[in-house]
Amino acid sequence: MSSLKIGIQLTQNPEKYKTLLSVLKSELSSTKGLEFIHIRTHEYLKDVIQNLNILTTYYLPEKYFTHGNENLKWVHFGNAGIEQSLHDPLLKSKTIITNARGVHAGPVSEFVMSTMLYFAKRFNDCHKFIQTKNWTQWEVAKQMVQLKGKTIGIIGFGSLGKAIAKKANAFEMRVIATRRLQKKVEHKKTVDELIPISMLGHLLKNSDFVVVACPLTPLTKGMIGKKELAKMKDSAFIINVARGAIINEQELIQALIQKTIAGAALDVFEKEPLPKESPLFTLDDVFLSPHISGNFPEYQHDVVLQFAENLNRYLAGKELKNRVCKKRLY
After folding, report:
1. Among 101, 174, 180, 243, the one annotated catalytic
2. pTM above the 0.90 mark?
3. Which of 3, 71, 188, 277 has minimal Cβ neighbours within 10 Å of its Cβ?
């Protein structure tokens, strides 16, 4: 009986690969009949993909997938946002797709809470105090916000949205969240109002902090534009930890310049790296970070643990977790 060939493209470093492979093997119920292949480059992937049965990677270019054949039964992506890999050849194939949904939830939700506190506790003004040494106690004090009793609106109630809601509960915030397949308004343990995406306007009008936490799909691209930003309170902040293209960046910049919203925290952008000439760098009440909200030192280790759990399920003939729907694209 031929072995099951598993391609692992999670690191180029041979030593790190050995460590990750050791972790993977330690989590598997059995390694009998399994052949692990270290894929260091896309060029090497192109050469071997036709022989692989399983692949775990971060990105699968269309031109390399087309070199594959029906041997490739399953691709597991080590990230949650995989829109760049969802090309027609893969979507029309019989290959199962899973992703790393949930791995980022802890660090990203912590990041979201940090940005809310940054605005609420006027950390930017505190930093200015350090720089200028001007004692601005009362000017800053009157702008301080307490998160308790404030409303957070979460666009996207997947693993990330749920983690954000749980942490917001700890701050005694009111939570409104949208979920694409939600049909009616419901109250959940961590959510005061779980609403259909068709009620997005309700979320925008009533939230003090709007958090974009949904995947980028044809339906969510440009979801937040001029009309949606106009529905927000002029005291509200918008936070994007999903994908830059979900918000119309030029309309957001105009809203910030005209102060129709209070501020924005952006970890993702329409174009990355963010061009140095972007007006976002010059605006007040804007917090910018270089797409790092989901990163942490143990990331690859956790991705491997997640892959190992699914590989055990695959070998046992069980349904895989985190399957990506080829119609909904997430």
Report:
1. 243
2. yes
3. 277
